[in-house]
Write a structure and sequence with these properties.
Radius of gyration: 23 Å
Oligomer: single chain
Number of helices: 21
Low-confidence stretches: 114-124, 531-539
Shape: globular
Length: 539
């Protein structure tokens, strides 16, 4: 048995424990040691996730590198891990982003002087901050690799704990005098929304187990359950399947987030550090959309088809609603948050269009949105840390004093509006094509989201980077070496995957096709097929 998947999950977990256990202190050397340990653990995780992706054979078995360890035998629960193409690329995305988040957040948890005597408060602040980041990474990676429904549920919920402390305990220092109260509100709102979704899902998980046990399948093993459902050995009645589907989907829709369950996201991202905001929208939220593909469609194929039109309408509302609210925002971070709500609408629309193009596009969108939004948000964080304000009105003329910062911010903005040649364009195009082939009206209306994205992205750039140089911007420094090391890989990957997405599509397409076969769906035939020809003449 290979232990590669276990190692990939265990390294960040061990790094979190080691980081938290390091001696506390206010000296720069101790803080530097803490950061180095956290960065080292995340780098090793990246290497292991890359090895997993390299060893995965897209044309082999659906789940590969399988590992299974007995856990709770009386309920058929095993700590089972396995990777398909979708899980491999999303785990790799997570492993790429976390080291960059750590670098970007290098000074975000440094303690501030507590008084005139120069003493420092909260000496464990640095250790706790980076340990929590690694804990989130470990739990997210397990979620992408888990092939046991109960194991997935445990880590799906457990990741809320470190995220709660990251939001509530390590907020944005540019938030103003009310920042502590607002951070507390945002953290509690995040926790309550997601706990509610998790409790509903727990009821559905128990219901699934009881139903399966009554028919001789006393297990939480996902491949066993999906195989039995696909060939009819495990039958869910119409009402039961719909209820179980809604229980799972509700939790995933909160995490994603899907309108109207989205309201926690702007608060959480607005009050977090830039690095934590990236973890929320580019890493943790992807678990929700990934789970829709793996669990909703695999376990409840008939209910998925039944509810698909309604979900598409909600996704369409989210696309337009998120974009419109992004246009009207005065706060840079909240603008990015509402833009992400719009983008998640595209991802969910691609999943439930139930076409190969739509689902391939949705999977690519998860990756490309993670890269582009991470670049956009982290550069915005560098900008905010220099000026000390999140308000768009406090900026202007940045490109004249910090051209590299403005240039990278422009690339992030153009990627957000899905400019051809950048990674999000490929995924958004596939989602729209895949949706249009089955639901033309929804596909047509969704294209207006592209126009609205151009408005909020370019207006933000115009108002912050162009025009007269504002007083608070005149002495703003350009990006430093550490910051360039953060943004450079994200920009490079955004451009590379924009012109050559084939490595990703080759990995995810077989898994997408397997998902569609579980739902017993095929791509719609063209409305006007080309007539067969013979000898150059039409028959």
């Amino acid at each position: 048995m290979s232990f590669l998947l276990t190692a990939t999950c265990a390294v960040p977990a061990a790094g979190a424990v080691l980081t938290a256990a390091l001696p506390a202190g206010s000296s720069e050397s101790r803080r530097r040691t803490t950061k180095a340990v956290a960065l080292g653990a995340s780098a090793v995780t990246l290497v292991l996730a890359a090895v997993v992706a390299a060893r995965f054979d897209p044309y082999g078995a659906r789940f590969q590198l399988n590992e299974s360890y007995s856990w709770i035998r009386s309920f058929g629960i095993t700590f089972s891990l396995g990777v398909d193409g979708i899980g491999a690329v999303l785990a790799l995305l997570t492993a790429v982003l976390v080291p960059l988040v750590i670098l970007a957040s290098w000074h975000d948890a440094d303690p501030a002087p507590a008084g005139p005597d120069g003493t420092f408060e909260n000496k464990r602040r640095t250790q706790a901050f980076f340990a929590l980041i690694l804990a989130v990474e470990a739990m997210v990676v397990v979620s992408f690799y888990a092939t046991d429904v109960f194991v997935f549920y445990v880590f799906f919920e457990a990741m809320l704990i470190p995220m709660y402390f990251l939001i509530g305990g390590f907020g944005d220092r540019a938030g103003g005098p009310e920042s502590a109260r607002q951070r507390s509100y945002a953290a509690v709102k995040f926790l309550l929304y997601n706990l509610l979704g998790g409790l509903v899902m727990l009821a559905a998980v128990i219901g699934l187990y009881v139903t399966a046990q009554d028919q001789g399948f006393g297990t939480f093993d996902l491949p066993t359950l999906t195989s039995a459902i696909a060939d009819g050995r495990l039958q869910l009645t119409g009402t039961a399947e719909k209820a179980l589907f809604l229980g799972f989907f509700f939790a995933f829709a909160v995490k994603a987030p899907l309108w109207p369950l989205h309201t926690w996201l702007p608060n959480a991202m607005g009050e977090s550090t830039a690095g934590t905001a990236v973890l929320i929208t580019a890493v943790v939220d992807k678990v929700g959309t990934f789970a829709m593909l793996r669990f909703c469609l695999g376990l409840f194929p008939n209910a998925s088809k039944t509810f698909a039109p309604a979900i598409l309408v909600l996704a369409l509302i989210g696309i337009v609603y998120g974009a419109l609210l992004a246009i009207g925002q005065k706060d840079i971070k909240r603008l990015v948050a509402y833009a992400s709500i719009s983008h998640f609408g595209f991802i969910i629309m691609g999943v439930f269009a139930l076409t190969s193009q739509g689902q391939s596009g949705a999977t690519l969108y998860m990756v490309n949105h993670g890269l582009s939004t991470a670049a956009w948000m982290l550069v915005a964080g560098f900008l905010i840390s220099r000026r000390g304000s999140r308000l768009i009105a406090d900026y202007g003329g940045v490109q004249k004093v910090a051209p590299v910062l403005a240039g990278t911010f422009l690339i992030g903005s153009l990627a957000t509006l899905s400019l051809p040649g950048l990674a999000p364009f490929v995924s958004e195009f596939l989602v729209l094509v895949g949706t249009f082939t089955r639901y033309p009206a929804i596909g047509i209306v969704a294209t207006f989201g592209i126009v609205l994205a151009a408005l909020y992205a370019l207006l933000l750039y115009q108002r912050t980077m162009t025009g007269p140089v504002k007083d608070g911007v005149r002495t703003m420094p350009d990006l430093k070496a550490r910051e360039l090391a953060v943004v450079g890989p994200l920009v490079a990957l955004t451009i590379l995957l924009g012109v050559y997405p084939k490595p990703l599509t080759d990995m995810v397409n077989p898994s997408v096709n397997a998902t569609l076969s579980q739902v017993h769906q095929t791509d719609p035939a063209p409305a006007h097929p080309v007539a067969a020809t013979s000898g150059g003449e039409q028959k």
